[in-house]
Amino acid sequence: MTELNIDTIINRDALYALRELPEESVHCCVTSPPYYALRDYGLDAQIGREDTPEQYIDRLTEVFREVRRVLRTDGTFWLNIADTYCGTGNKGYHADPKNPRGRNGQAVSIARQAAGCKQKDLIGIPWLLAFALRADGWYLRSDIIWQKENPMPESVKDRPTRCYEHIFLLTKSKKYFYDAAAIAEPLAPTTAARYRTGRSAGQKYADEVPGQGKVQGLNRARSGSYYDEALMPTMRNRRDVWLINTVPYKGGHFAAFPPKLAETCIKAGCPKGGVVLDPFFGSGTTGAAAKQLHRHYIGIEINAEYCALARRGLEGQKNKTV
Question: What is the chain's mean pLDDT, rounded?
Protein backbone atom coordinates (compact mmCIF):
# COMPACT_ATOMS: atom_id res chain seq x y z
CA MET A 1 0.00 0.00 0.00
CA THR A 2 1.38 3.44 -0.93
CA GLU A 3 0.72 6.97 0.29
CA LEU A 4 -1.94 8.92 -1.56
CA ASN A 5 -0.53 11.11 -4.31
CA ILE A 6 -3.11 13.60 -5.49
CA ASP A 7 -3.47 15.48 -8.76
CA THR A 8 -1.78 12.65 -10.59
CA ILE A 9 -2.40 10.25 -13.47
CA ILE A 10 -1.45 6.59 -13.12
CA ASN A 11 -0.76 4.69 -16.34
CA ARG A 12 -1.78 1.20 -15.26
CA ASP A 13 -4.59 -1.34 -15.26
CA ALA A 14 -7.37 0.01 -13.04
CA LEU A 15 -7.67 -3.03 -10.78
CA TYR A 16 -3.98 -3.24 -9.93
CA ALA A 17 -3.58 0.52 -9.54
CA LEU A 18 -6.55 0.69 -7.16
CA ARG A 19 -5.07 -2.05 -5.00
CA GLU A 20 -2.12 0.25 -4.31
CA LEU A 21 -4.27 3.11 -2.99
CA PRO A 22 -4.93 3.51 0.77
CA GLU A 23 -8.30 2.59 2.24
CA GLU A 24 -10.91 5.36 2.64
CA SER A 25 -8.66 7.92 0.98
CA VAL A 26 -10.93 9.51 -1.66
CA HIS A 27 -14.18 11.43 -1.28
CA CYS A 28 -15.82 10.68 -4.61
CA CYS A 29 -15.52 8.55 -7.73
CA VAL A 30 -16.83 9.70 -11.12
CA THR A 31 -16.18 7.38 -14.03
CA SER A 32 -17.35 5.92 -17.32
CA PRO A 33 -15.82 2.51 -18.06
CA PRO A 34 -15.38 1.22 -21.62
CA TYR A 35 -18.72 0.01 -22.92
CA TYR A 36 -19.22 -3.63 -23.73
CA ALA A 37 -18.29 -4.87 -27.22
CA LEU A 38 -17.91 -1.48 -28.89
CA ARG A 39 -14.21 -0.95 -29.53
CA ASP A 40 -10.89 -2.79 -29.51
CA TYR A 41 -8.02 -0.63 -28.28
CA GLY A 42 -5.41 -3.31 -28.86
CA LEU A 43 -4.58 -3.72 -25.15
CA ASP A 44 -4.39 -7.16 -23.59
CA ALA A 45 -5.99 -6.18 -20.28
CA GLN A 46 -8.68 -3.89 -21.70
CA ILE A 47 -12.21 -4.09 -20.36
CA GLY A 48 -15.07 -4.37 -22.86
CA ARG A 49 -13.74 -7.21 -25.02
CA GLU A 50 -15.01 -10.07 -22.86
CA ASP A 51 -16.74 -13.00 -24.54
CA THR A 52 -19.99 -12.50 -22.63
CA PRO A 53 -21.75 -9.65 -20.80
CA GLU A 54 -21.52 -11.72 -17.62
CA GLN A 55 -17.73 -11.71 -17.81
CA TYR A 56 -17.78 -7.97 -18.44
CA ILE A 57 -20.00 -7.39 -15.41
CA ASP A 58 -17.77 -9.60 -13.24
CA ARG A 59 -14.65 -7.65 -14.19
CA LEU A 60 -16.25 -4.29 -13.51
CA THR A 61 -17.66 -5.51 -10.20
CA GLU A 62 -14.15 -6.53 -9.15
CA VAL A 63 -12.74 -3.13 -10.10
CA PHE A 64 -15.50 -1.25 -8.31
CA ARG A 65 -15.07 -3.40 -5.22
CA GLU A 66 -11.63 -1.80 -4.94
CA VAL A 67 -13.21 1.61 -5.53
CA ARG A 68 -15.46 0.95 -2.53
CA ARG A 69 -12.42 0.07 -0.42
CA VAL A 70 -10.59 3.33 -1.21
CA LEU A 71 -13.76 5.45 -0.93
CA ARG A 72 -14.41 7.20 2.36
CA THR A 73 -17.37 6.00 4.42
CA ASP A 74 -19.28 9.15 3.43
CA GLY A 75 -18.16 8.97 -0.19
CA THR A 76 -20.22 8.81 -3.39
CA PHE A 77 -19.74 6.87 -6.61
CA TRP A 78 -21.17 8.19 -9.90
CA LEU A 79 -21.15 5.57 -12.66
CA ASN A 80 -21.96 6.38 -16.28
CA ILE A 81 -22.87 3.32 -18.37
CA ALA A 82 -24.87 2.62 -21.54
CA ASP A 83 -26.49 -0.45 -23.05
CA THR A 84 -25.82 -2.54 -26.13
CA TYR A 85 -27.62 -5.13 -28.24
CA CYS A 86 -27.11 -8.80 -28.91
CA GLY A 87 -25.76 -9.22 -32.43
CA THR A 88 -24.17 -11.53 -34.95
CA GLY A 89 -20.62 -10.37 -34.39
CA ASN A 90 -20.26 -8.81 -37.84
CA LYS A 91 -17.86 -5.90 -37.88
CA GLY A 92 -19.36 -2.49 -38.35
CA TYR A 93 -19.35 1.06 -37.12
CA HIS A 94 -19.93 0.50 -33.42
CA ALA A 95 -19.30 4.08 -32.32
CA ASP A 96 -19.55 4.95 -28.67
CA PRO A 97 -22.98 6.56 -28.10
CA LYS A 98 -21.39 9.20 -25.88
CA ASN A 99 -20.26 11.18 -28.90
CA PRO A 100 -21.29 11.21 -32.57
CA ARG A 101 -17.63 10.97 -33.59
CA GLY A 102 -17.22 7.75 -31.67
CA ARG A 103 -14.17 6.27 -29.96
CA ASN A 104 -11.00 5.62 -31.86
CA GLY A 105 -9.89 2.01 -32.01
CA GLN A 106 -11.03 -0.81 -34.26
CA ALA A 107 -14.65 -1.90 -34.65
CA VAL A 108 -15.05 -5.10 -32.70
CA SER A 109 -16.26 -8.49 -33.89
CA ILE A 110 -17.83 -9.92 -30.75
CA ALA A 111 -21.00 -11.97 -31.02
CA ARG A 112 -22.42 -10.06 -28.04
CA GLN A 113 -24.54 -12.96 -26.85
CA ALA A 114 -26.03 -13.04 -23.37
CA ALA A 115 -27.79 -15.77 -21.45
CA GLY A 116 -31.52 -15.56 -22.15
CA CYS A 117 -31.10 -12.99 -24.94
CA LYS A 118 -31.93 -13.39 -28.61
CA GLN A 119 -30.33 -11.63 -31.55
CA LYS A 120 -31.39 -7.94 -31.57
CA ASP A 121 -32.38 -8.06 -27.88
CA LEU A 122 -31.27 -5.14 -25.74
CA ILE A 123 -28.95 -6.81 -23.23
CA GLY A 124 -29.64 -4.58 -20.24
CA ILE A 125 -26.00 -3.97 -19.33
CA PRO A 126 -26.64 -0.97 -17.03
CA TRP A 127 -29.11 -2.81 -14.82
CA LEU A 128 -27.13 -6.04 -14.83
CA LEU A 129 -24.20 -4.02 -13.52
CA ALA A 130 -26.28 -2.02 -11.04
CA PHE A 131 -27.79 -5.16 -9.52
CA ALA A 132 -24.38 -6.84 -9.36
CA LEU A 133 -22.91 -3.85 -7.54
CA ARG A 134 -25.84 -3.73 -5.12
CA ALA A 135 -25.38 -7.44 -4.39
CA ASP A 136 -21.69 -6.78 -3.83
CA GLY A 137 -22.41 -4.30 -1.05
CA TRP A 138 -23.04 -0.93 -2.68
CA TYR A 139 -26.10 1.19 -1.83
CA LEU A 140 -27.93 1.90 -5.10
CA ARG A 141 -29.31 5.38 -4.43
CA SER A 142 -30.39 6.78 -7.79
CA ASP A 143 -30.71 6.02 -11.49
CA ILE A 144 -30.09 9.32 -13.27
CA ILE A 145 -30.97 9.58 -16.93
CA TRP A 146 -28.44 11.52 -18.98
CA GLN A 147 -30.54 12.78 -21.90
CA LYS A 148 -28.91 14.14 -25.06
CA GLU A 149 -30.56 16.30 -27.70
CA ASN A 150 -27.67 15.54 -30.06
CA PRO A 151 -27.39 11.73 -29.86
CA MET A 152 -25.40 9.68 -32.31
CA PRO A 153 -27.51 9.00 -35.42
CA GLU A 154 -28.54 5.39 -35.91
CA SER A 155 -29.66 3.73 -39.15
CA VAL A 156 -32.27 1.54 -37.45
CA LYS A 157 -35.88 1.68 -38.66
CA ASP A 158 -37.50 -0.79 -36.26
CA ARG A 159 -36.92 0.98 -32.91
CA PRO A 160 -36.38 4.52 -31.58
CA THR A 161 -32.94 6.10 -31.72
CA ARG A 162 -31.11 5.95 -28.42
CA CYS A 163 -30.69 9.37 -26.79
CA TYR A 164 -29.87 8.66 -23.15
CA GLU A 165 -27.49 6.85 -20.85
CA HIS A 166 -27.57 5.89 -17.19
CA ILE A 167 -25.68 7.51 -14.34
CA PHE A 168 -25.99 5.44 -11.19
CA LEU A 169 -25.37 7.11 -7.85
CA LEU A 170 -23.99 4.50 -5.46
CA THR A 171 -22.70 4.92 -1.93
CA LYS A 172 -20.68 3.00 0.59
CA SER A 173 -23.03 3.65 3.51
CA LYS A 174 -26.53 4.90 4.31
CA LYS A 175 -25.27 8.36 5.28
CA TYR A 176 -22.99 10.16 2.88
CA PHE A 177 -21.98 13.58 1.60
CA TYR A 178 -24.50 15.03 -0.82
CA ASP A 179 -24.76 18.77 -1.51
CA ALA A 180 -28.27 19.12 -2.94
CA ALA A 181 -28.06 22.92 -2.98
CA ALA A 182 -24.97 22.84 -5.21
CA ILE A 183 -26.93 21.31 -8.10
CA ALA A 184 -30.43 22.64 -7.35
CA GLU A 185 -32.42 23.82 -10.37
CA PRO A 186 -34.69 26.88 -10.75
CA LEU A 187 -38.39 26.58 -10.12
CA ALA A 188 -40.55 26.82 -13.22
CA PRO A 189 -42.27 30.25 -13.45
CA THR A 190 -45.73 28.68 -13.22
CA THR A 191 -44.71 26.75 -10.12
CA ALA A 192 -43.33 29.86 -8.45
CA ALA A 193 -46.58 31.70 -9.19
CA ARG A 194 -48.60 28.92 -7.59
CA TYR A 195 -46.52 29.09 -4.41
CA ARG A 196 -47.09 32.84 -4.22
CA THR A 197 -50.86 32.47 -4.20
CA GLY A 198 -51.29 29.32 -2.12
CA ARG A 199 -54.36 27.10 -2.40
CA SER A 200 -57.06 29.37 -0.98
CA ALA A 201 -57.64 32.71 0.77
CA GLY A 202 -56.27 32.85 4.30
CA GLN A 203 -54.32 29.65 3.84
CA LYS A 204 -51.43 29.36 6.29
CA TYR A 205 -49.24 27.23 4.05
CA ALA A 206 -48.55 27.46 0.37
CA ASP A 207 -48.21 24.35 -1.73
CA GLU A 208 -45.32 22.12 -0.92
CA VAL A 209 -42.07 22.95 -2.64
CA PRO A 210 -40.73 19.66 -3.98
CA GLY A 211 -38.11 18.37 -1.60
CA GLN A 212 -38.55 21.28 0.83
CA GLY A 213 -41.91 20.78 2.52
CA LYS A 214 -44.57 23.47 2.93
CA VAL A 215 -43.81 27.18 2.69
CA GLN A 216 -45.37 29.21 5.50
CA GLY A 217 -46.63 32.78 5.29
CA LEU A 218 -47.59 32.99 1.62
CA ASN A 219 -51.26 33.93 1.92
CA ARG A 220 -53.29 35.17 -0.99
CA ALA A 221 -53.10 38.93 -1.42
CA ARG A 222 -56.88 39.20 -1.74
CA SER A 223 -57.28 38.00 1.87
CA GLY A 224 -55.86 41.31 3.10
CA SER A 225 -52.54 39.83 4.16
CA TYR A 226 -49.20 39.94 2.38
CA TYR A 227 -46.27 37.68 1.72
CA ASP A 228 -42.57 38.26 2.15
CA GLU A 229 -40.79 37.77 -1.18
CA ALA A 230 -37.72 36.68 0.75
CA LEU A 231 -39.62 33.58 1.86
CA MET A 232 -40.34 32.57 -1.72
CA PRO A 233 -38.24 29.61 -2.83
CA THR A 234 -36.54 30.07 -6.19
CA MET A 235 -34.89 26.66 -6.52
CA ARG A 236 -35.96 23.04 -6.27
CA ASN A 237 -34.19 19.74 -5.71
CA ARG A 238 -32.46 18.48 -8.86
CA ARG A 239 -34.51 15.95 -10.82
CA ASP A 240 -33.08 12.66 -12.05
CA VAL A 241 -33.24 13.46 -15.76
CA TRP A 242 -30.28 15.62 -16.82
CA LEU A 243 -30.34 17.25 -20.25
CA ILE A 244 -26.66 17.61 -21.14
CA ASN A 245 -25.50 17.47 -24.74
CA THR A 246 -22.29 15.83 -25.89
CA VAL A 247 -19.46 18.15 -26.89
CA PRO A 248 -16.79 17.58 -29.54
CA TYR A 249 -13.28 16.87 -28.34
CA LYS A 250 -10.35 17.86 -30.56
CA GLY A 251 -7.93 15.32 -29.12
CA GLY A 252 -7.69 11.65 -29.91
CA HIS A 253 -10.10 10.30 -27.27
CA PHE A 254 -13.50 11.16 -28.69
CA ALA A 255 -15.57 9.35 -26.08
CA ALA A 256 -14.97 11.85 -23.30
CA PHE A 257 -18.21 12.65 -21.54
CA PRO A 258 -19.18 16.33 -21.30
CA PRO A 259 -17.43 18.45 -18.66
CA LYS A 260 -20.82 19.65 -17.41
CA LEU A 261 -21.78 16.07 -16.59
CA ALA A 262 -18.65 15.48 -14.52
CA GLU A 263 -18.98 18.89 -12.86
CA THR A 264 -22.55 18.19 -11.76
CA CYS A 265 -21.58 14.90 -10.12
CA ILE A 266 -18.57 16.45 -8.39
CA LYS A 267 -20.49 19.46 -7.09
CA ALA A 268 -23.06 17.20 -5.46
CA GLY A 269 -20.82 14.36 -4.35
CA CYS A 270 -17.48 15.83 -3.28
CA PRO A 271 -16.75 18.64 -0.79
CA LYS A 272 -14.41 21.45 -1.82
CA GLY A 273 -10.82 20.39 -1.29
CA GLY A 274 -11.80 16.71 -1.54
CA VAL A 275 -10.32 14.05 -3.80
CA VAL A 276 -12.11 12.74 -6.90
CA LEU A 277 -11.11 9.38 -8.37
CA ASP A 278 -11.60 8.18 -11.94
CA PRO A 279 -10.27 4.67 -12.62
CA PHE A 280 -11.05 4.98 -16.36
CA PHE A 281 -9.57 8.44 -16.84
CA GLY A 282 -9.49 8.60 -20.63
CA SER A 283 -8.77 12.13 -21.81
CA GLY A 284 -9.10 13.53 -18.29
CA THR A 285 -12.56 15.11 -18.26
CA THR A 286 -13.12 14.17 -14.60
CA GLY A 287 -9.74 15.57 -13.58
CA ALA A 288 -10.33 18.81 -15.45
CA ALA A 289 -13.74 19.23 -13.83
CA ALA A 290 -12.31 18.51 -10.38
CA LYS A 291 -9.53 21.04 -10.90
CA GLN A 292 -11.96 23.74 -12.04
CA LEU A 293 -14.12 23.12 -8.98
CA HIS A 294 -11.18 23.31 -6.56
CA ARG A 295 -11.05 19.61 -5.83
CA HIS A 296 -8.13 17.23 -6.27
CA TYR A 297 -8.10 14.27 -8.64
CA ILE A 298 -6.54 10.85 -9.14
CA GLY A 299 -6.79 9.41 -12.63
CA ILE A 300 -6.06 5.83 -13.64
CA GLU A 301 -5.77 5.00 -17.33
CA ILE A 302 -4.37 1.88 -19.00
CA ASN A 303 -3.75 3.60 -22.35
CA ALA A 304 -0.48 5.57 -22.39
CA GLU A 305 -1.66 7.70 -25.32
CA TYR A 306 -4.69 8.89 -23.37
CA CYS A 307 -2.54 9.56 -20.30
CA ALA A 308 -0.34 11.88 -22.34
CA LEU A 309 -3.41 13.57 -23.81
CA ALA A 310 -4.91 14.11 -20.35
CA ARG A 311 -1.65 15.48 -18.93
CA ARG A 312 -1.36 18.03 -21.71
CA GLY A 313 -4.91 19.18 -21.15
CA LEU A 314 -4.57 19.45 -17.38
CA GLU A 315 -1.22 21.23 -17.53
CA GLY A 316 -2.72 23.91 -19.73
CA GLN A 317 -5.76 24.43 -17.55
CA LYS A 318 -6.23 27.20 -15.01
CA ASN A 319 -8.60 27.06 -12.07
CA LYS A 320 -11.72 29.15 -12.46
CA THR A 321 -13.86 30.63 -9.74
CA VAL A 322 -17.06 28.64 -9.24
Answer: 83
